[in-house]
Amino acid sequence: xxxxxPSFPANTPAGGLENRGQATGRPPWATGIAHVDTxxxxxxxxxxxxxxxxxxxDDVAAAAGFVATLAIGTTGNARPVVWLxxxxxxxxxxxxxxxxxxxxGGAPETCLFVLGEDTKSLLRAGVDAxxxxxxxxxxxxxxxxxxxxxxxxxxxxxxxxxxxxxLLLLLRTGAEPAPSAAETRWSVASAxxxxxxxxxxxxxxxxxxxxRRKSGLSGLxxxxxxxxxxxxxxxxxxxxxVVPVPLRRPAADAGAGPLRRAG
Length: 263
Fold this sequence. Notes:
The chain is α/β, with parallel strands linked by helices. About 25% of the residues lie in helices and about 25% in strands. β5 (about 135-145), α6 and β6 form a beta-alpha-beta unit.
């Protein structure tokens, strides 16, 4: 699979997009939670890889929802997002819904979903998308071990992200964490949300654990609630920002998300 993405030279404004590359000195995207941003040195760094694993099989939708909120928050709906998915993800995990994306505060017209036949095609498309400089965020969704995503391939993606200044989010399902060039690695699980008036479903809530950060602390855990109006997070913990993550939680606690099971 080869995809022709728009190409924008580094440090050249195009279509209202800001200058890209390390020379721009773009600050990290702050989540809105002081404890998280402090642990990350200010927030999620642009031009880097951030990797996310579903904590349990029932947390696939939660992990996808969390990645979606990051894509929406970091771009502010002002820059396009490209989401690269294997066809297996549609069969096993469901289809992406524009209505679900909008419920998270995103603009569906700014997000492009691309289906690939296999891991190699997804990785090639990911490098092309990063090198184009035409996207605010590139998401690569992988199912299973993704053996093709070895250290060499990971470093190639990392270099392309660094040169363009584009945020790369890797969503991993059905896999164990493995060495990579990712700046941060996370485990994501669903968490109960606070019900609204008339017992209406509350805001999407996630239990996240920082499994690894280059030259930083790891093993930290938080419970975050997504604020769709401000496109940032707020602390959902009752006492303090750091909370223990339950071993298992029912899928019904997942909250709103952009995934719907294929019929």
